[in-house]
Amino acid sequence: MAISRRLVQRFQWSASLRDSRIVLDRTWLCLSAAALAWSDYESRRRSRQSFCETEPGRSSIIKFRVDNDRPGLLSEATEVLKKQHLNIKDARISTADDSRAEHVYIVQDKLSGAGLSEDRLAQVREALRQLAAGDCRAEPWPRYCSADVAKHTTPEQGIWVSYKDGVYDITKFVANHPGGTDKIMLAAGKAIDPFWRIYQQHTGRGNALELLESMRIGDLSDPPQADDRSSCPFSTDPERHPGLIFHNNKPCNAELPAELMLDAWLTPNPVWFIRHHHPVPIMDHDQYRLVVDGVGTKSVTLSLEDLKSRFLKREVVATLQCGGNRRSELDQIEKTSGIPWGFGAMSTAKWGGVYLREVLQHCAGLSHENVEAFEVKHIIFKGLDSMEASIPVQKALSPYGDVLLAYEMNGESLPKEHGAPVRIIVPGVVGVRNVKWVGKITASQEEAQGPWQRGIAYKGFSPNVKELTGIDIEKIPSMQDLPVQSAIVFPKAGSTVELDDIEVKGFAWSGGGRGIVRVDLSLDDGKTWITADLQDGKDQAYNRAWAWTFWEASVPVPDSLKGKDITILCRAVDSAYSTQPERPEPLW
Fold first, then answer.
1. 418 carries an active-site annotation
2. Which pLDDT tens digit goes with each residue over 195-224?
3. Dist CA 364 CA 387 (whole Å)
4. In the beta sheet, which residues pair with residue 3?
5. Active site residue 355
6. For 539-575, how does the pLDDT look when each residue is reduced to its tens digit (9 = 90+)?
7. What is the rounded CA–CA span in Å between residue 36 and residue 215?
8. In whole angstroms, what is the distance from residue 243 CA to residue 247 CA?
9. Cis status of the peptide bond prior to 178, with omega within 30 of 0
C-alpha cells in the first residue's frame, strides 16, 4: 500500500489523515523495475566510454557486436566464454545504435578473480570471432566506494545500496518492493546485508538475488576496514544494525523503527532497541562471577556454568521499555530534557535463564522469615558497567513476579549488546531496572544509590511542577511499573487515503503484568468509538501478561469527514480497567 501520510505528528496515540485518500497499489512490477534499472545503467555506461585500457576491476563487461545475428548465437557464445574459464554473471542481447545486435556479458576471470586484462580479452575476442564476424571489446565493471553509495538516498540522486561486494541502483524498484517503500528505504545509501540477515527469505529464495543482480551497477571498492580506535573506551562496542534509529553512538542509544515493529511479536535481536549509559563491558564468560550478598543472606559466588547447571532453566516473554519512550511526543507540547525517543524505545523477547527468587532463596538463603527479621526492602543490581538499580523485594521473591537472571535471548546466547553473559529481566517494570551485565546482587534495607534510582530521570512529578526548587527528589517514589498505553504504528502521520475504511494497526502494553483487554479507536474526537481486534499477545496469563499486544481495526470514515483532515485517537484498557488518557496535554 503506497501511502503518503499526514497523520498529525503530535502523538502516536492519535493520528491525522489528509484528504482521506489512499492509493492502493500491490502490483509488484519486478521485471519492469529490473529492465528500467538496466536501461539506466546502459545510458550511464555509454557516457563513460572507458574500456580495457582502464585498470580492470573485479568484473568486466564484454560487448560482442555481430554483423549478422542468428538464433542460438547467445547460447553458443555463452558456452565459448565458459570454456575460456570465465564466470558469467549475466548475459543478454541489446540493439546497438546502428541496429546491429550486441551481445552483452558480465564476466569475471576464474583464474585471477578479476576483470579481463588485455591479454585475456585478446583470447576471448579470438574465440568469439570463430562464431560470428563482429567487434569485441570489454569495459571495466565500475567501482564505487561506500561514500559514493551513501550519497544516493533519494529518487533525484538515485537510490543505491550495497550487498557484499556489489553496488546496486534500486531507484526504480523501491515503489514495487513487496515489503513496502518504508522498509526498503531504511537501507538507502547503506549495506543491505544486515537487513537480509533478519529477512532471510531474500537469500533462501533465488529470485531476490537474481532481481538484485539485474540492478547491479558496479563493485564496492572499499569493504569496511577495522578502525584503530584503541584509545576510545567505546572502541570494542559491537557492530550495530544500520536499520536502527540512532540518537547517540557513544554511549549507544537507538530505537526500533516503526516500519519493523509489527513484523514479529518477538523483536529480532539485531534490531532490538539499545539504551546504554556507558561503553559495553568486555567480559570473558569463563571468568564471569556473580556475587549475591546483603542483609539476611549468606554470600555466594556463582559462575555462568553454575547458573546453567545448578538451576532449572526458565523462559519468560517480556517487553522492555525505556522510561523516556515517546518523549518526542511530549516535546511537541513543551520541551523536555533527555533523548527525544519516538515510540521505538521498547522491544520484546523470549528470555531464558533462572528465576532470581530461586537463587536468592535456595542458594543465598534469603527466606521470607529473613526478609521480615532483617527488614529487607530492596534487591539491588549492580552492572559491570558501574550502573545500578533496585526493585522492591516483594517483586524479586514473588512466585508470580517472574524476575529472571537471563543468559538467553530469543533462543540464542544473550548478545553482549544486551547484557551478556547475564542480565536481569524484571517483567512489567521500567527498563532501567533490567540491569545488563549484572555482576552483583545485594539484599538491602534501602534502594540503590545513584542517578538511575534516586535522581530526577526516573521519577514522576505533577504537571504544574516546572522547577525543583524546594523539592526533595529522594522522597519522590522511584518509577517501577509503567502505565497502560497504546500507539498507532500504521498508518503514519500525514498519510493520504481515499478508501471508505482506514486500516489501523498498533500495539498496546501495560506494566505490572496487566494484560490488554480492549483498544478503542475514534475518528470524531472521542464522540464515538469502535473496538479494535486484539492479535498477538492477547492470550497471556492473568497478571503475568509481560509482553505487548498487537491490535488492528478497519475504521469506517463517516460521510461527514470524507475529504477532510482526520485525527485518529486510540486508547487502551488493561485488566485492572485502567484506561489510557486520550491526550497527553493534561499530563505535561
1. no
2. 887 776 677 655 788 889 888 888 898 876
3. 23
4. none
5. no
6. 999 999 999 999 999 999 988 888 888 889 999 999 9
7. 9
8. 13
9. no
Q: Is the pTM of this model over 0.85?
A: no
Residue 378 bears catalytic tag: no
The three three-digit cell numbers of residue 311, written as one number: 538451576
Q: Among 356, 351, 471, 478, which Cα is nearest to 410's?
A: 351
Distances (CA, A) of 169 to 60, 91, 142: 18, 19, 13
Do 161 and 189 touch, CB atoms closer than 8 A?
yes
DSSP H/E element including 242: none
Report how far residue 205's alpha carbon sits from residue 228's, in angstroms, rounded to the nearest whole number.
Answer: 38
All three cell numbers of 501, joined, read 475504511
- Please state, in angstroms and rounded to a whole number, the distance separating the CA atoms of residues 365 and 353: 20
Q: How far apart are CA 584 and CA 197, in angstroms?
A: 38
Catalytic residue among 136, 252, 322, 363: 322
CA atoms of 263 and 258, how far apart (whole Å) = 10
Exposed / middle / buried, residue 237 (Cβ in 10 Å: 0-12, 13-18, 19+): buried
Peptide bond into 251 cis (omega under 30): yes
d(CA 31, CA 60): 24
Residue 294 in contact with residue 444, Cβ under 8 Å?
A: yes
Clarify whether 241 is annotated catalytic: no
Active site annotation includes 275: yes
User: Cell numbers of 505, please?
Assistant: 494497526
